[in-house]
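ok so for the tutorial part 2 we go from a plain amino acid sequence to predicted structure tokens. step 1 is just haveing the sequence, like this:
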Amino acid sequence: MSEIQQQNNGHWVQVVIDVPLPGPFEYRVSSRCVPGVRVIVPFGKRRLIGVVISVHDEPTLKPEKIREVERVLDDLPPMGEHWFALCQFAAKYYHRPLGEVMLPVLPAYLRQPSAYLSARAGEGPVARFKERQTKAELKAQKQQKKSTKSTPTESVVQSDETNVESATPIELTSDQQQAVTAITQAQGFQTFLLYGVTGAGKTEVYLQAARDVLLKGGVVLFLVPEINLTPQFAAALRARLVDLVKDEDIAMLHSGLSEGQRLAAWVAAVEGRAKVVLGTRLAIFTPLPRIDLIVVDEEHDPSYKQQEGLRYSARDLAVWRAREHEIPIVLGSATPSLESWWHAGRAAYQRLTLASRAITVALPEVRLVDTRRQPLEQGLSVQVRDAMTAALEQKRQVLVYLNRRGYAPVLHCASCGWVSQCDHCSVYTVLHKVGSRMRLHCHHCGTQRPVARRCPDCGDQDLQPMGRGTQRLDEHLQTLFPEHRIVRIDADSTRRKGSAEQLFAQVHTGEADILVGTQMVSKGHDFENLGLVVVLNSDSALFSQDFRAPERLFAQLVQVAGRAGRRTLQGQVIVQTDYPDHDVYQALREHDYVRFADTQLELRQMAALPPFSFQALLSAQAKELETVMAFLGNAKAQGEQWVLDQNLLGEVILYDAVALRVVRVADQCRAQLLIESTVRTRLHQFLRAWLPMLGSRHGSGGLRWLIEVDPMEI
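step 2 — the prediction. this is what the tokens look like for a chain of 714 residues:
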């Protein structure tokens, strides 16, 4: 469907449901029904919730073969036309059934038939939520009458992660003012690439542009790449826009919320009560009745690409959605994706540049320590130890960045060479310290087991950790700096709900002297007193087979380096490396993103890689690798025959199937086949014809396959 049909009192409906079949499916309905409502329908022996996409007077099948809708769910307004258009575009572009797009993005309560079948008409999760909300509001009103209203503290501090505490006007830099003016004066659809060094005040530009929209009664959608960035962004919104938005005006949407919290935000959005929607990639599918501005912070971040189910890019869908609503969109980053940089270079996007930090503090000095020429103590050079000591003596905080969690990457036996291997994956198990005990974890399949007392091959009891993760680094730093407070922030230390916020609060309030962390700490955080950043073990990313690896590494390093010296004194960054002359490190040392990006684009153009070509990736898995390779080999042969028949040789290329570097995960062997074209429409023309030839995604012999358009990792 290109658009939603108008309301109709017919008795036949087309419904999409979350099943791996094309659909839609036809049902009879005896009550009033309109497109965009949810319904409970029988499907095989199950009952499922689906979304009505059309209503019509005549059936397309024999009436006796058409089953009845069991219940029409009218507890929410119908999903609007813009939401339908977004889902339909995503289904078409990513080559997935419409039901697999529409249903998974709904809060769980809205797609569980049991939540409704056990309730009487007019009841259900939305009704129960509203009843609880009414009681909570009445209670809050009573408490408010008993309390005195406090006055917000004034502050005029600027940063990328503005933590100001009031709506006090801030004097913008000239670059910031030009950016705000360009955004607020945009007419209709326009994509702005807001490029600015770390600390340039991109967040303040977002907030000032949002203020202009909210003053006119509009609605703003903010996207951030990670859950742990939402609390501080929400705090900045409440503080800087305190005169325009209250807590109830902000709808937060991300996977870290409870189902009740997510339902509350979704209801506020679909009913048009939310003035601001803030969330991670999931929030792009929020069915807002209107949107007037979209902001995508850290637009380069790989987290915007969904890696399960519908493998969509929230950033790319955000640009499409802005075009659909005919509104401006702002993509912000200190290290824009090369695709966005290229778009700006050919004027498809308008580039807005913040050339200097909002606060007059120089960018940090970057030092490269050549680790080939000196011994290391527990992975630390003497230069790093001395610099840490000096920073701590100056009462400045230190961040040690190691993008590897756990205690050590592997456990090994020095006598016979045995290393800890996962029984279900072709990877080493990682040594973790849990309390006072050691355990081996597989970071791919999740399997855990205790550490053996002796080598399973030779019986030697002297098993040793090899390498180091954040836990082991934390332990070593405690011996080096016993008088200083150390906080470790990684996926292990932040598993409990709210733990990340608590740990970051310790850093912000000065309760921590040394921060050890993974990429969780590399972006979006404004540490006022951080004077030194140390980067360890980043070389492994230099030689990845993935052509995007240098871009990702450079972005990570720029982001983590940008945490240093953001307020009063210049910061320092030390990178330990065996390859100090590498282009990535030299560009980092000079703070020269432009040179790095232009060089990378030249290399990609010579190799005809994105953005100068368009790709899709067919991945398959089964218990035996031979099964997978046979399937992909046959798929390639079918595809090449179609290309030949259509006289498109050279316009669509199918590469040989290859096994993944980590070939086996959870007892499933994996391989992939890359498809490439220099013309996007040709690629999609090929996929539309080719994918039906491959049969069911759940094939015989336990084989499963999926297609990913615009893959981020190859």
